[in-house]
Recover the amino acids of this structure.
């Protein structure tokens, strides 16, 4: 095994030669290594965001289970979203923090492949789950008298299963297809994590088919779900405007507004990262967008739902009061 020095800008660290020349099987996650003065700042910000993500999403899951008033389809899917966000960030953030903390920027081959499969699985699952949540809101607003009949527990579990299994199927196909590309010893991944676009750029062969498949799959998992969501909210808006009570309209808009905010944050960043044409001048912006939807979005999701939702705030207040009484 041969050691040599790899440099990027004015930052240096030890790196092993690629699998073609040695037994080393791994990659280098560049992240912000070309801006070493920013590494500690990013470390603190990402750590803070990760802790908020853990606390916020665990709180959503906890109160959804403990408060009987929240045993509804809406909060069942919200708990699924929180569970997904917890796994989504945990699949990438600890490795980010490790690479930002010290000079070692490597990730093992197995760790990179696991991160690739899991990250793509959960990202595709969220695309489908947000459509399911939009359907739930559509039924609740447009078919209120039949809501509990249509969204019965069995249907809710089936819809959640479709989201998780659909995302898993996409990951198995797309990740495995990406791994067939010849890397020719290339190791430097110009991103914070192992994801399909970054690994395609490492390939030394023809990647046109991979790029076409990536664009096609991403278009399907973004444009189609987003169109369905927007159409459903068109019907929801018409139904809300017919509600005679101003308080009823406000409550419905707040609930649906929370979901729409999450939709635009997630789909907006995903479309920018995966579907817009990549240019060398925008590589840095691309990896920061990756950082946004892998770190920031899972953190703000529970904040959006708690700050705009009286039921969640009421359940949280009740839980805190009960905790103080027991203490």
């Amino acid at each position: 095994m041969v050691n040599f020095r790899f440099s990027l800008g004015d930052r240096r660290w030890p790196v092993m030669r690629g699998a073609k020349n040695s037994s080393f099987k791994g990659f280098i996650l560049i992240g912000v290594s070309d801006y070493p003065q920013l590494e500690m700042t990013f470390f603190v910000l990402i750590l803070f965001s990760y802790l908020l993500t853990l606390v916020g999403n665990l709180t959503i899951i906890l109160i959804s289970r403990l408060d009987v008033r929240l045993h509804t389809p809406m909060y069942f899917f919200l708990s699924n979203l929180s569970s997904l966000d917890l796994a989504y960030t945990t699949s990438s953030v600890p490795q980010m923090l490790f690479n930002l903390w010290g000079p070692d920027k490597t990730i093992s081959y197995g760790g990179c492949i696991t991160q690739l499969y899991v990250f793509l699985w959960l990202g595709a699952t969220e695309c489908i789950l947000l459509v399911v949540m939009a359907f739930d809101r559509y039924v609740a607003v447009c078919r209120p008298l039949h809501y509990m009949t249509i969204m019965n527990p069995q249907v809710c579990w089936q819809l959640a299963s479709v989201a998780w299994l659909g995302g898993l199927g996409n990951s198995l196909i797309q990740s495995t297809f990406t791994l067939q590309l010849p890397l020719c010893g290339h190791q430097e991944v110009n991103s914070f994590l192992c994801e399909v676009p970054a690994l395609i750029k490492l390939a030394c062969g023809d990647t046109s088919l991979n790029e076409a498949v990536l664009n096609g799959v991403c278009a399907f998992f973004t444009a189609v779900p987003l169109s369905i969501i927007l159409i459903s909210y068109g019907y929801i808006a018409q139904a809300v405007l017919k509600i005679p009570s101003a308080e009823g309209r406000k409550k419905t808009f707040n609930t649906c507004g929370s979901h729409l905010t999450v939709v635009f944050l997630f789909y907006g960043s995903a479309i920018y990262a995966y579907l817009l044409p990549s240019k060398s001048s925008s590589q840095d912006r691309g990896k920061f967008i990756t950082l946004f939807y892998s770190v920031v979005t899972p953190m703000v999701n529970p904040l959006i739902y708690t700050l705009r939702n009286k039921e969640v705030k009421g359940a949280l207040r009740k839980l805190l009061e009960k905790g103080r009484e027991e203490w």
Notes: The radius of gyration is 22 Å. DSSP finds eleven helices and five strands in the chain.
